[in-house]
Amino acid sequence: MGIFDKIFGKDSTQSRAATPVRATTPVRQMTFLTALSMHARGELEPVLAAYAGMVERDPDDLLALFFTAAAKAETGNVEQAVQTLREVSERLAEREESISRAVVVELSNLLVDDSVTVKRPAINEVVVAFGDLLKKEGYIREGAICFEIATGLAPDNAHMLHKLGDALHDLRLYDYAESVLKEALKHAPYHFGALYTYAVLLQDLGRNDEAIAHYEKAAKLVPTHVSCQNNFGAALLRANRVDEALEHCSTALELDPKAPLVKINLGYIYLVKQDFAAAAKSFSGAIELDDQLAPAYFGLASAKQALGADPQTIRELYLKVIEVNPSIAEAHHALANLLASQSDPQALVHYANALQLNSSLPNLRRDYGYACLQQGKRDEALEQLKLAVMLNPDDATARDLLAQVQAT
Q1: Cα separation of 277 and 281, whole Å?
Q2: pLDDT tens digits for range 149-184
Q3: pLDDT of residue 16
Q4: Would you say residue 64 lies in a domain?
Q5: Which position among 36, 92, 327, 379 has the lowest Cβ density within 10 Å, counted as fewest Cβ atoms?
Q6: Is the separation of the CB atoms in 318 and 333 below 8 Å?
């Protein structure tokens, strides 16, 4: 027996070998698409019973399992829905199949035979709502499966493609995300969501000029979007277009004066402009709004240092950065430099941490070598300074320090 013509009586445990049901028998007869049409109308209680009957008769009924998960999520049982999706996905993976492709193929086959009972747009509303709910609850991978199904059912729909691309970007599947977002923009060149998400992706990949071009288009379409204005400003700052960056981040702050990330970007813009008092004010304002933002503490430490603040205050700020996010190599490097200037042996620990986190930080090996030299660790100094010169032969300071060590 296939998905169609499954018969459910009052006793859902009735054997398939039971006497065939006649039209006069008081038993409800329902196809999968009939159940799905009810699901699309929000009739969840009878639909869950119908799907359960289908799964009871065929435990591998993929469509019934998938849409059971969707209905459960709608009724608040999100964890059960996710568990069902994962189990089905793992089962299909053992056969080298993907759940999204399998669902699309089975649904498409059904709709070839019956395109009236429930329409594709109605099905996609159910699938996308499921994906949105999963993504909102932090189940991004499972949400992406739903969006992938939606794009399989409507491959030319830019809105569906954007949702999939956005989820893939969140999962850091950058190549796949880029291909999906480019497809969305091919069908709808002025789709704000696709333009904005693609700009963010390009910025993450370091393709700053391309990102700026897409931010510009997106900002013209929706100039009141705070994150777009803010990220546009950040991209412009990275391109050293400081005044333009200030303009867009200032616009973002006007739109949302309580956006801590906007205040952080403004702080870094003021640092570049060497307006250290304004930078410190912006970073402090960000911390007042959210005291768990490591970049705000790092920026505030940099601004305070430039203003000649007490070294202990600066040290505490760098330590706070590391407490909030121990993986920021720049914070370890900056703290190490501060400690080295005070001949504190702990400087070497933070240089080593920075090196482990990001060995390509500018001047890191040179500074580490110099600190080792100051603390009488000649062999360590020699090793770091040799590497510093090898990596940057034009660094005259590193060359001079290396010559000094080799002469001893």
Answers
A1: 6
A2: 999 999 999 999 999 999 999 999 999 999 999 999
A3: 28
A4: yes
A5: 379
A6: no
Give pLDDT, residue 285: 98
CATH at 42: 1.25.40
Residue at 273 is within a domain: no
Q: What is the pLDDT of residue 373?
A: 93
- Per the CB < 8 A criterion, the answer to whether 135 and 167 are in contact is yes
Give the separation between CA 35 and CA 29, rounded to whole angstroms: 10
SS3 for 241? Answer: coil
pLDDT of residue 25: 24
Taking the C-alpha atoms of residue 380 and residue 154, their distance in angstroms, rounded to an integer, is 61
Q: Domain count of the chain?
A: 2
Q: Is the pTM of this model over 0.70?
A: yes
Distance CA 146, CA 126 (A): 10
- Which two tokens mark 310? 């007490």
Element (H, E) at 330: helix 329-341
- Among 154, 172, 199, identify where a domain stops: 154
Considering the domain boundaries, does residue 130 fall inside one? yes
Q: 112 lies in which domain range?
A: 1-154
- Kindly state the DSSP code that residue 7 receives in the 8-state scheme: E
The CATH number of whichever domain residue 371 belongs to comes to: 1.25.40.10
Domain boundary among 139, 154, 169: 154
Residue 322 lies in a domain: no
What is the rounded distance in angstroms from the CA atom of residue 97 to the CA atom of residue 145?
A: 13
